[in-house]
TrEMBL record:
Family listed: Belongs to the 3-hydroxyacyl-CoA dehydrogenase family.
PANTHER family: 3-HYDROXYACYL-COA DEHYDROGENASE FAMILY PROTEIN, 3-HYDROXYBUTYRYL-COA DEHYDROGENASE
InterPro entries: 3-OHacyl-CoA_DH_NAD-bd, 3HC_DH_C, 6-PGluconate_DH-like_C_sf, 6PGD_dom2, NAD(P)-bd_dom_sf
Gene3D superfamilies: N-(1-d-carboxylethyl)-l-norvaline Dehydrogenase, domain 2, NAD(P)-binding Rossmann-like Domain
Protein name: 3-hydroxyacyl-CoA dehydrogenase family protein
Pfam families, per the entry: 3HCDH, 3HCDH_N
Keyword field contains Oxidoreductase: yes
Organism for this UniProt entry: Streptomyces phaeochromogenes
UniProt keyword list: Oxidoreductase
UniProt pathway: Lipid metabolism; butanoate metabolism
Amino acid sequence: MATPLSDPSLSLSASPLKTVAVVGLGTMGTGIAEILAKAGREVVGIDISEAAAAQATAALESSTARAVQRGRLTEQERDDALARFVTSTDLRAAADADLVIEVAPESYEIKHQIFRELDGIVRPETILATGTNALSVTRLAADSARPERVLGLHFFNPAPAMKLVEVVSSVLTAPTAVAAVTDLALELGKEPVAVGDRPGFVADGLLFGYLNQAAAMYEAKYASREDIDAAMKLGCGLPMGPLALLDLIGVDTARTVLEAMYAESHDRLHAPSPILKQLSEAGLTGRKSGRGFYTYDAPGSATVVRDALTPPEGASLVPGRTVRSVGVAGSGTMASGIAEVFAKAGYEVVLAARTEEKAQAAKARIGKSLSRSVDKGRMTAEVAAETLERITPAGSYDSFADVDLALEAVAEDLEIKQQLFAVFDKVCKPGAILATTTSSLPVVACARATSRPQDVIGMHFFNPAPAMKLVEVVRTVLTADDVHATVREVCAKVRKHPVDCGDRAGFIVNALLFPYLNNAIKMVQEHYATLDDIDAAMKLGGGYPMGPFELLDVVGLDVSLAIEKVLHREFRDPGLAPAPLLEHLVAAGCLGRKTGRGFREYARR
């Protein structure tokens, strides 16, 4: 990241930012004004629209009234905050401000005009901040009479609730200006992250690439909007699915951000998906218009209503096969977790490994897991004992002769899986469903190792299987309809949420997750931001349960690299090429928590 230039004449640190003008009183501007007024600042809200100014005042009155009801403010504190907020439709009302925060529409022309006018209105020492998340702060600063006082101050929506604030410096920004707004952000109870000037900065720079890929996945009819959103919520613990989030942000806003990112990066992952342009130009911009990827009951509403694309409710029209017993092949964490899931749901389970000892060890692991559930009050000791009794360990796959569903959870190696499916083909009875838990290999390649490819399907569970609700159901071009219907029914019986996807690398979750992780690594590699800042930005600004580097170290850098290579090989997109830093760490044996060192170091147990 470039080092900001200093200007000795700018003595902002001695002048606390007591009066703040907020230009643009949409949702974001109103939210920022609320934070400032509650924190004791004199706030001037400015908007060319009298209606917007009146709406901002009403919103502040309403939000502070709710805060009083919830015991977060006293009546006196509310009265004081409201008294500190005034509105105007004239930019000259910013004349006495110590700081001006501009949150006008994402347009260079509009923002340039505001900054040019402010040059002739505010004092020489007044800091001018833009709330842009897509446009160049440097470009806005360069046209200002005093570029050293211009910076970016990027809040996240809803501003009162979201903790992250990105403080954006250009090469022209004075360090004293950065220090002043950083101190202000801290006083507001926010967590400021210092970043350089590039489209999207950290949080949106990573977020919008992911959202764009989700839109492209939907446009390609690879998966339904409901399944894409459910997969990312249940598979990654995200608060919202990507398509619902695009509707919340605004499809037109997302398109603007992506166009700015693509203009700088020329990375095809940032080239706006055509569906974003189509929806934007049709006026289907998301919640604010009442329709985007989903349909809402009114403009501005969060309530989704059924439309022509909503999947029908109820059971599949295709009758499924009967499944009473399940064979699970493997002895690792995933195999034992899946066996536990089926046994809890009442299925008879054969847990087979290469040796009887490995199978017994896997069953013992399940016993410990069930004991922990008993200790936590999630099940009785009697139910735990009955569950464990349903699991029969075996040292040979011949024990799968009578199972209705044979599911492998062995090493992620195509040759090993193909050999196992050839064994399934020989030992399993006619009509048995043969499933793979692969997360990255072609399911059809497993199917072709059998004489009955129509019976083969993917069932990608997520780790830990007993806790994670998602199963990606992967059909090949050869999978029979009744096999697909059966697997969806089985998922429901074991209390998992199935999502349908086709047989291509990464399926839904990994195809969207790992390019995002790879882009985070590139940010560090390019010295744009630190590990800690990126992790903080995605947790605080995106609502992610873990930052990308925390997650990479948990997953394992070797596993992550293998998935990145599969995605790059299949989609042939240069933007998917694994970051060299990831390859170097794996080559050095730094694989994450399991080795004690990955992107971070961990205390050895």
